[in-house]
Each structure stands twice: as C-alpha cells, then as structure tokens.
C-alpha cells in the first residue's frame, strides 16, 4: 500500500558527509589570473626600480642583485605556499576525521537495530546495507552485497518485480511506499516483513536512488491471527450457547 503522506514528501537526503557524496575539484581561474597579473607587475616594477635606483650597475652587479632578490622572493614564496599547504592538509585531516566518526556512528547504529536497512543507486545496485539485511540474505558481511542488485539475490521474475517497484518509488517525487512481503531466513522460518521505501536525493534535490527498511512484523501478524481465531471461537461458542438456551426454553 502507498502511504498518504504526499504533502510531507518523505525523502532521504544525501549530504556531503555521507557515502556516495563527493566534491568535484575545480580550477580557480580567477585566482590564477590575478596571480599572473601580480607576478608580471612585480617583474616590471623590479626592472623599473633597478634602472631608477642603480642606473650605473655593471652587468655582473645587476645579475648579483637579481639573484639575491630572486632568492629572497623564492624563500618567501615557499614559506607562504608551505603555510597554505599545511593549513589545507589540516583542514582535510579534520574533515576526514569527522567523516570517519560520522560513518562509524552510522554503522554502529544501523548494525545494532533489528530492522534491515539498505540503500540503492538508480541502477538498483546496493550502496549500503546493515548486518540485519546481510543476515536476511545469508551473507556474512554487509560489504558482500555492495555493488550487487536484486537480480543477484532473487529469481528473475521476483527481481524484475522488485526493481520495477524501486523505479516507481524513485519517480514518485517523495511518496513513501509501504508493502508487506514474506521472506525465508537462514533457518527456514517464514517471516512477514513490512517494507518502507523512500527516494534518496542529493543536495540539488536530484533523485540518486532509494532507501528502504524491512521491519519484521511476524509476531504482530501471528498475534492478529490468534486474535481472529479467538474471536471466531468466541462467536461459535456464543452461537452454541444460544442454540442450547433456545432448546431448553422450548416446552416439551
């Protein structure tokens, strides 16, 4: 069944700190252009300065001064570049540390809940799964499922139906899809799963896949079945009681 929460548009957003997100490197042409202008202006100014201040320098003296000035400029430039590089490396290391911490927290949480969680790209390939999902499909580790699809786990007809359902969710514009299905675990027990799927979107609101959760509702279904059976038995007992009462009330 499809949920009625269209107004809220339930979707999972993919941020820059999550798996699959990346920052595309680019060239800062404006900064390079300004740097070229500054270097050209510096060289022209240096030449003008030397001719004005030292008009009678001999060639070897001029070369010596040029070497000294160039050496100082190179040292200062190297120092500046080293400082900038150190700062950039420190920022990168801090970002990597935070990313590793966030991924560790995410993995710890998802691997210690009973629900099966998965994420797929637009082609249906698994981007993320937790331990419960791996166990459901008889895998030793969630990493064994990465890059696979439902066509690697189910018969063709079943896989086609599941993939078609995924495509409908991705085209839904944010509507959550909830369905009930059965699955057989590694011990041969039949489980009833409530599956919820929502689109996975990136920072530009583009759908890049889906996120799904399987919740085991077998016990709830068994309790509902027992309740129905109890109600049926009670209704049968009431009918029998009334029939017996009516027979006893009839005159002999």
Query: What is the number of E strands?
Result: 6
First and last CA, distance:
58 Å
Supply the CATH class of the largest domain: Alpha Beta
> Mind telling me the C-alpha Rg?
35 Å
Which sheet architecture does the biggest sheet show? 6 strands, mixed
- Helical fraction equals 40-55%
CATH architecture of the largest domain: 2-Layer Sandwich
Question: pLDDT under 50 segments (min length 5)?
Answer: 1-7, 17-24
Tell me, what's the shape? rod-shaped
Strand content: 15-25%
CATH topology of the largest domain, anyone? Beta-Lactamase
What structural class is derived from the secondary structure elements?
A: alpha+beta
Q: Give the CATH H-level superfamily of the largest domain.
A: PAS domain
Order of helices and strands: EHHEEHHEEEH
Give the averaged pLDDT, no decimals: 80
Please, how many helices? Answer: 5
Quick structural gist:
This protein is of the alpha+beta class and 252 residues long. The protein contains five helices and six strands, in the order E-H-H-E-E-H-H-E-E-E-H.
Protein model, in words:
The protein is an alpha+beta fold and 252 residues long. The protein folds into three domains: 24-109, no CATH class; 115-216, Beta-Lactamase (2-Layer Sandwich); 218-252. The protein contains five helices and six strands, in the order βααββααβββα. Strands 1, 2, 3, 4, 5 and 6 form a six-stranded mixed β-sheet that branches. β4 (177-184) and β5 (190-201) form a beta hairpin. The longest helix is centred in the middle third of the chain and has 52 residues, at 59-110. The radius of gyration is 35 Å and the shape is rod-shaped. The model is unreliable at 1-7 and 17-24 (pLDDT under 50).
């Amino acid at each position: 069944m499809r949920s009625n929460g269209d107004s809220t548009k339930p979707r999972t957003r993919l941020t820059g700190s999550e798996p699959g997100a990346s920052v595309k490197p680019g060239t800062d042409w404006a900064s390079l252009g300004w740097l070229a202008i500054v270097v050209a202006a510096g060289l022209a100014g240096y030449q003008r300065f030397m001719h004005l201040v030292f008009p009678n320098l001999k060639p070897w003296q001029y070369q010596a001064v040029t070497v000294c000035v160039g050496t100082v400029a190179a040292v200062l430039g190297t120092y500046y570049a080293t400082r900038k590089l150190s700062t950039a490396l420190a920022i990168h290391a801090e970002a990597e540390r935070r990313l590793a911490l966030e991924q560790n927290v995410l993995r710890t949480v998802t691997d210690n809940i009973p629900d099966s969680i998965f994420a797929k790209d637009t082609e249906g390939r698994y981007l993320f799964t937790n331990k419960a999902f791996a166990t459901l499909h008889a895998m030793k580790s969630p990493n064994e499922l990465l890059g696979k699809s439902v066509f690697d786990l189910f018969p063709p007809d079943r896989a086609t139906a599941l993939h078609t359902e995924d495509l409908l969710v991705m085209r839904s514009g944010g509507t959550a899809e909830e369905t009930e299905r059965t699955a057989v675990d590694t011990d041969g027990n039949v489980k009833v799963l409530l599956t919820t799927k929502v689109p996975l979107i990136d920072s530009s609101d583009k759908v890049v896949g889906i996120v799904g959760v399987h919740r085991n509702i077998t016990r709830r279904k068994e309790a509902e079945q027992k309740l129905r059976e109890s109600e049926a038995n009670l209704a049968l007992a009431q009918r029998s009681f009334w029939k017996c009462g009516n027979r006893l009330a009839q005159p002999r």
